[in-house]
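note to self: the first set is below, dont mix up w the second
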Amino acid sequence: MTFRQMLRRFGASEKGIAAVEFAILAPMMIFLLFGSVELVEVLNTNKRAQNAAASLADVVARDTEVSTAEINSLWSAIDVLMFPDEGATMEMRVTSIRIVDAATARVVWSEGRGMTPRTANSVVTLPAQMMQPGTSVIMAESSYPYASPLGFVIDGTMDLEHVAYRRSRLVDPIPRVG
């Protein structure tokens, strides 16, 4: 049998075709599987971080005054809201803002966990829709350093940052007490 005949015979053979197809498709299928698992995980964590910021702003906006004990309780609640992720690594800041006029918003008080509190009476930039003179706003900010458990598609960490605004409901502005 000549080399040319052996080559034709090899090309006509259908044995092992499934193995070749699997070898071509398997890496793409594995990438899609792990990539989709990682994408769903980061989206779920992002939603929990967004919910934590919104919940913090909402709880403070319903108060008539905010004490140190309440602030400490809110920081502890963040750990619960972030479960099953590690809530202790989330940085948070809650700020009471008084809107002076259509162009000026000033900090009344600010508290932070992992974030530096804003300086009292400093100017803050708010969305135009929030700028209603004579009112106040509670602004909650969060930053969560997300590290993928798989590390397949997302390498290293990425910060999931959120800002939530709520109008003061009962007292305008909400005072900070010791």
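second set (the one i keep forgetting abt)
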Amino acid sequence: MEHQVKAVVNKFELRKGEAMKLIVKAHDKVLGTITIGQGTFRWTSKHGKKYNKVFSWSKFAELMDRQD
């Protein structure tokens, strides 16, 4: 298996201040963590907060819909 995603889910409905984390791995090495909250989508690389990217859901949708 090339990629693995481990989910840490405490609740099925997120409230303000709560988040769900997805740990993304390739070949058993961590690529980064996706944190999904009520208002944001956050990608943190394996290097930690130095490379932290945070998007509102509207901005995230805009980025995903872009035609390159």
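remember for set 2: The chain has one domain: 3-65.
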